[in-house]
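Q: Start with the shorter request: fold the first protein.
A: Done. Sequence, then structure:
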Amino acid sequence: MSPSPVPPRVVAVVVAYNRAELLAEVLDALAAQRVALAKVVVVDNASTDASAEVARAAGDLVDLVSLPRNTGGAGGFAAGMAVAIADHEPDWLWLMDDDTVPTEGALAELLAAVEGTDHVVAGSRVVWHDGTEHPMNTPREKPFVGKDERVAAARRGGIPIRSTSFVSMLVRADVVREIGLPIADYFIWNDDFEYSTRALRGRRGLHVPASVVVHKTKVLGATDADPGPRFYYEVRNKLWMFRRSQSLGPFEKAVYGASSVRRWIRTFVRSADRTVLRDGWRRGYRDGTRTRPRPNAMALEGLGRASDAVAQVEPA
């Protein structure tokens, strides 16, 4: 009898900020996965609650990276992925926020879907705590996909995708080494859209409905729900992406750009405080057209071990 193949080495990256109770639930769920994780890198984004203590109490499975300042979700994932690559030799990285609670078989289903294939990204089905599909984390199906690719994906129980969310995204480590890290200066919003489309440009990815995670947001809202002052990041980052990033081709930028404008209009129409959105639009448009994101080595400098890992994984 031939020996069983060595399972892939998976390192989870969890970005935490002031949700200690939820973080404890996430870490318990990660420890209970049917496929054992090699390590869980928890990035504490300068929390003011007990998040760091919760991570330390989780034991040897967790590698805690405490940042001296809040770098947002984008900076947290960039720092955590860099540490995971530099220090833990993963085959795959599994990315999630500190309010993402994976079901026991979530990782096993992702790995089963990509095993023996050329897929480099896989995303889970994301539900709210009542089991409702979460509209905030809907993946974008791959357009104009060929029959062979669609059939191959279906045989794996998956759907070909063009983008997915950091709320349970599995990405192959060699692709991270090739394309680099998420752009830290995005801070929040659209960092996962930019990064997943960058990883999937010219490559294949899957949405895996059998892999289920629970996204425990306070409310069940879509991406066009009223964002308040955060609308600034939506506008700035989309403009940065469409003008600066190579994650999308020209035709894709036109299509997704038009879709974004329609979403912004819906957001404005539904808003209870349009003055705030006007200000976010004005500042976002100004910065999105007149500035560009800094290199990660600059945006994430002064973070000690995390900065060293960024420089190692993403040299200038």
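Q: Next, the second protein, separately.
A: Sequence, then structure:
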Amino acid sequence: MMIKVLLFAHLKEQAGRSEMEINGENMTVGELRETLAEKGILQQDAVMVAVNEEFARDEEMVHSGDTVALIPPVSGG
């Protein structure tokens, strides 16, 4: 009943790890964002979310066993 969450860039540095697991079975991407915000992992909506390597909108479902990647905006220079 776990959802694997992969963290990149400043999210990885902020959490002190590159991946974590969230206890959950079925939730929307939006609900997952709220859960991560409560844990202090996610503060901004600009982060892209991919579920099983496909970009997902907030209303899409995440299921136990899925892998979710949080991809912050890339700044160029």
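Q: Describe the second briefly.
A: The chain has two helices and seven strands. The chain has a mean pLDDT of 90.
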